[in-house]
Amino acid sequence: MKVTVVGTGYVGLVTGACLAEVGIDVTCIDIDVKKIDNLNKGIIPIWEPGLEAMVKRNFDSNRLHFSTDLSISLNDTEVVFGAVGTPPDEDGSADLKYVLEVAREVGRHMNNHLVMVTKSTVPVGTAEKVRNALQDELNKRGSDLSFDIASNPEFLKEGDAVNDFLKPDRIVVGVESDKAKEIMARLYKPFTLNGHPVIFMDVPSAEMTKYAANSMLATKISFMNDIANLCEIMGADVNQVRAGIGSDTRIGHKFIYPGIGYGGSCFPKDVKALIKTADDHDYSMRILKAVEEVNESQKSRLFYKAMQYFNSDLKGKTIALWGLSFKPKTDDMREAPALILIDKLIEQGAKVKAYDPVAMEESKRRIGDKIEYSEDKYGALVDADALMLVTEWPEFRISDFDVMGKLLKNKVIFDGRNLFDRIDVEKNGFDYFNIGTEKK
To answer: Which of 414, 362, 390 is closest to 299 using CA atoms?
Structure first.
């Protein structure tokens, strides 16, 4: 089976590599010449556990190819995945220009029946726009070639994407014909041999499923953060509350950990896009609007705790940040709480020293020399007035409080991920502020 994946970003590269891993002949296409040259040299543009080795293994085995020429790769291709970006417009809607351009390019160059699959996260109704764009190009050619449209949203967690693709909870595929269903079932057969289900549905439902899933998870996060903030006011312990509600199988333990908000490439963008889609159809997503409001506020939670601790005077203070990426096991800083904290701290005249195991180069690319970077976690504490724990990297879990106390000017920790145990921290002489367990 031959597959073409257009787009070599996070979704496209993981999709291409994992399909090649099960023996499918895959060509990944991108218009970025430098990126394709680097991929052909084994240089991976993103940091994702296990991905680099998989790409190299399948490239060396001649199952995974990289090119800028879509026309050649379409020869005998049965499935084309569109995995390009859908960045949010200023109004929150998903920008579909790249998705539709892929469809047009396929229409210009296809020479046999294929299934045009949208892998990008797109609003309900995008499939029809993709169909029309592709058909318009065929009409211009005077071609009577047939094609099918499908929607196959991704549900990959950054930091565990390879495992998610190879061992999925479910594979959602929206199709409109038996032929498309047969082709997609054959494509995904290697992933269903161990019982992982393919859920076939109509295309609009598949498009909606992606947004609904991410919005539900974002809702759980914001709900728990709201509860955590109330716990601080009422003198309750959110960790005990979380244990109490998480044991209810209807709720579960996942995504109910309080913190300083969600970020990344999916949740913020998808929540905004679903809100905008509803607004465009004269319906208000009231819960999601509150979810978004809570999340944006939560990203500043540590800043305001620090302002209160230092009597609203951060000028000249040095704040150490542990963690820059929006979550562990990725260098992704899109919508990361760290970016909000850094801006607010600098606005108040503070200096920031940061350490992150993998995201410091990405931070330098984004914000340059606005902050100072440390080669290790303890180096960031030298002469700092306080520590803010921003990302729950595993290496932060076990830390030497004696060493930390000697390096910091003030023995104070603002823990945005509830990584430390209050009793352990306070018995070592630290002032400790986290999310949802402070006693007023």
So the answer is: 390
305 close to 333: Cβ distance less than 8 angstroms? no
Kindly report, residue by residue over 70-96, the tens digit of the pLDDT: 999 999 999 999 999 887 766 677 788
Any idea which fold 211-297 has? Answer: Rossmann fold (3.40.50)
Q: What percent of the chain has pLDDT over 90?
A: 89
The rounded distance, in Å, linking the Cα atoms of 435 and 117 is 42
Question: pLDDT for 288-298, tens place per residue?
Answer: 999 999 999 99
In whole angstroms, what is the distance from residue 340 CA to residue 327 CA?
15
The CATH superfamily label for domain 2-201 reads NAD(P)-binding Rossmann-like Domain (3.40.50.720)
Fold of the domain spanning 299-433 = Rossmann fold (3.40.50)
Asked about 18 being catalytic, the answer comes back as no
d(CA 232, CA 236): 6
Smallest CA-to-CA distance from 195 within 224, 230, 231, 171 is with 171
- Residue 273 CA to residue 258 CA, distance in Å, equals 24
Tens of pLDDT, residue by residue over 158-196, are 889 999 999 998 999 999 999 999 999 999 999 887 777
pLDDT of residue 277: 92
pTM: 0.89
Active-site residue (options: 18, 28, 231, 266)? 266
What's the pLDDT score for residue 123?
86
What are the percentages of helix, strand and coil residues in the chain, rounded to 5? 45, 15, 40
Closest by CA to 35, choosing from 62, 7, 2, is 7
With beta carbons less than 8 A apart as the criterion, state whether 86 and 268 touch. Answer: no
Cα 60 to Cα 56: distance, rounded to the nearest angstrom: 6
